[in-house]
Amino acid sequence: MKIKIYISTIILLLFAGMLNAQVTFETKVSKKKLGVNERLKVDFEMDRDGDNFTAPSFTGFRVVGGPIQSMSHVWNNGQRSFSKTYTYFLQPTAEGTFTIKQAKVEIDGQIYKTLPVTVTVTKAVDKPKDANNPDYVISEGLHLVTEVSKGDPFLNEPVTVSYKLYVKPGIIVNDYRELGKPTFNNFWSQNIQTQMRRAERTTYKGEEYSYVTLKRFVLYPQKTGKQVIEPFSIDLQISVPTNRRDVFGRRYETVHKTISSAQRTVNVKNLPEVGKPEDFSGAVGDFDFKVTTSKNSLNATESLQAKIEVSGEGNLKLFQLPKLKLPSSLEVYEPEFSERVTTRISGMQGRISDSYTVVPQYKGKYPIPSVSFSYFDPSDEKYKTLRSDEIIIDVVEGPVNTATAENTDNQNSTQKQLVTTNGSQFRFLKTDANLSPIQTEDFFKSNLFYALLLGPFLFIPIILLVRRKKRAYDNDIEGSKTRRANRLAKKYLSEAKKKLNDKEAFYEVLERALHNYLRAKFRIETSEFSKEKISQLLTERSVNEETVHDFISLLESCEFARYTPATDVAINKDYEKSVQTISQIDKQLK
Q1: Architecture of the CATH domain 285-395
Q2: What is the helix, strand, coil percentage profile of the chain, to 5?
Q3: Which residue of 246, 330, 536, 574 is surrounded by the most CB atoms within 10 Å?
Q4: What are the boundaries of the signal sequence (predicted)?
Q5: pLDDT tens column, 381-427
């Protein structure tokens, strides 16, 4: 009987232990009904320390904060309680009824899941105008504003867009996070780096504020009509003053808040058709133009450099330079393009040029005709044309070109002549071959015999030399890396090489190849990355600054090609630069 009692007691104790060992993992929400303009706090809480936590997809919500992980250990009367929580802050994206699906976690080798929770999102609710309510204080004292330098620019005229955060005195911004990158459809854009975000005093809507410029961009509109600048959103951690004190005597409450700038519209004007020069190629700004040569006097077969250069302020990267036309007696090579352009708040500044190598073949004086360049000046709202002076190239020594033009009448006149035969113009094949025997010699002890006999011995040193070269080739680790990198670059760019004669297709394929290369190397999706993010990614992997700059400039060339013409020289140059840059990145990656 006592044995039965002991067994029952042991079973009860084991059962109680199993109950105490049961894991609790649940979803807790701050509210089950909220307005579309409110935020939802979601806690995934467990009473054991788990690993490999997987959050559900928050359909109908946008994650604006989190995950924030927290743990707590509490001892009460000798009993220990443990809690681990993953916290998310969600912003509704639409009205309706949505389900927070199951989250998963692994505890002691077992997978545990939460139960789904249903939340109802209603229309926007009126927030109380309470000075102690953080939402009200923030809505009244925190504004993200998109400032546009000009609302009605001409096509290709620069527009500066600044995103400024205005903060009322008393509100403290602890930190902020960008929710995506600003998008500018139908604009060529360039991010202007801000060295230091310093708060400045100003007046906003008649009240005193402090503001800080978060981002600046220079835009060049590429399409006429009403163009939309999309809103920019950030998530902030803010300390808001209240009249309530906490246990430490503090009167500030720290909250998270998502704010967005308003959508802005820019009305882009087309360039006037009246007075547009025939040689106008899309240049907009204020420019200087000149044509120069490295020398004006030289001998035949010597070379000189003829340079066409445009400098000033405007869309320097978005138009094509005029071509240089030279006499046929001068041998001219394809131009080498050069640019020194910086983008500031006011727009692009610098110079671009085409440098032609010219080699005269004959003695004489050769004129380089005047070249014209036209551009549109938006400040004066009219077209302007600049012309270079005629340049005379004096070839002092060399052969004389004896080719002379014949008289026009002689060129156009034709004279018939009789065809005479001398009896030897048409002959039949001879039927009598008149063959005779030839002298032959024995193969043995002949020159060919000794050559074949001694040849293998002569090839032995050559074979040894080739093997030594092959061994050195295989041991050349750096060289092997270079060759492997070159093969990899040509592999990714093989399709682009096939499109060298089709500008649009070439740059489209080239851009895809560059992203595919990064995707393969880093195993991440780069198509949504900005150029700044890609630059940071490469720098973190020990790629030097010059190579990173070359890669980013290739991506920019792919963007420019959508709006501007490109010469065969530029296309071939970008292809060669792509092969070299990918090869360099592959060698430098760590």
Answers
A1: Sandwich (2.60)
A2: 25, 35, 40
A3: 574
A4: 1-21
A5: 999 999 999 999 999 888 887 653 343 344 343 334 444 444 444 44
